[in-house]
Design brief:
The protein is of the alpha/beta class and 297 residues long. The chain contains ten helices and 13 strands.
Length: 297
């Protein structure tokens, strides 16, 4: 199974909306599975019209530290916690761990093996649903106050890889954090979405450094390009100078908002967008390195 990952340097550039339309088009000729890897704020399901998952499962991908009575001699661990999750309870004469700050790194256990125990915690939910467009969607939701988003993304992708599909299309979260790293790792091609603003370009460059670290081929799409055509040209020049494939540009249109309100991909809201997305998809498939039918424009 080949994997296409859609990411962006910053939020709000339209990454999930683009993912939804590309997935719907791709599913017309290929067997695919869609994955929402933005486990902190998943919304791909809503754009695809999935209001309730057919199956849901609580999972444990992270650990947290717990104190027992033998930790009374371990006052020194209070000052060594990188996440400031440990305080000293004078009344009990024991360390106290804030479960919302603990990342489960295990450093405190190394210093106090007799008094600190690491235990698995139920930190996320994985949902599975069949969309109206003929393909399945796997989505994850990190529970409030929990950590381990990167491990949750790994679990989602493992589940999706077991489906009878030729292509996995993954909607990453924005930025360069753990869930983004987990989304990129193991991908065959990354489609990087940006918008014509200095901050978006700056954040895009940081994200592409992460992609390059994993030696994954990638290309760039400019969304809302006509809001600042001059800066869009600058982004295209950046791509050309660095031999980065330029996959296409998408105009700003209120139809995107209407599509979101109606819980559907924009190509279903207005078919005038189909040729734009087909061109992007044709180029993406070409760089993905698989034989596929041409998506006529």
């Amino acid at each position: 199974m080949k994997t296409i990952t859609i990411l962006s340097g910053k939020g709000g550039v339209g990454k999930s909306s683009i993912t939804a339309s590309l997935a719907v088009l791709l599913a017309e000729k290929e067997k695919i599975v869609a994955v929402d890897c933005d486990v902190d704020a998943p919304n791909l399901a809503l754009i695809l019209g999935v209001e309730k998952f057919d199956k849901e499962k609580v999972i444990s991908t992270n650990e947290k530290a717990f104190v027992n009575e033998k930790a009374k001699d371990c006052k020194e661990i209070v000052n060594m916690c990188t996440f400031s999750a440990i305080s000293w309870n004078r009344k009990k004469g024991l360390p106290e761990i804030n479960k919302f700050l603990c990342e489960g790194c295990g450093a405190c256990q190394l210093l106090c093996p007799q008094g600190i125990e690491l235990k698995k915690v139920k930190n996320a939910v994985i949902g599975e649903a069949k969309t109206d467009y003929g393909f399945s969607l796997i989505s994850g939701q990190l529970k409030m106050g929990e950590s381990g988003s990167g491990k949750v993304v790994d679990a989602i992708k493992r589940k999706a890889s077991k489906f009878d599909a030729d292509i996995m299309i993954a909607d990453s979260s924005a930025g360069i954090g753990c869930p983004v790293i987990a989304s990129i790792r193991g991908s065959d091609f990354v489609l990087a979405v940006t918008e014509p603003t200095p901050s978006a370009l700056s954040d895009l460059k940081r994200s592409l450094q992460v992609v390059e670290h994993f030696r994954v081929p990638y290309g760039i799409v400019i969304n809302k390009y006509d809001l600042n055509k001059k800066f869009s040209k600058k982004i295209e020049e950046f791509a050309k100078q660095n031999n980065i494939p330029f996959l296409g540009r998408i105009p700003y249109d209120k139809k995107f908002v209407e599509a979101l309100v109606n819980l559907q991909p924009v190509i279903k809201q207005d078919e005038k967008f189909k040729p734009i997305f087909k061109k992007i998809l044709n180029k993406t498939i070409k760089y993905l390195g698989v034989k596929s039918k041409n998506f006529e424009c």
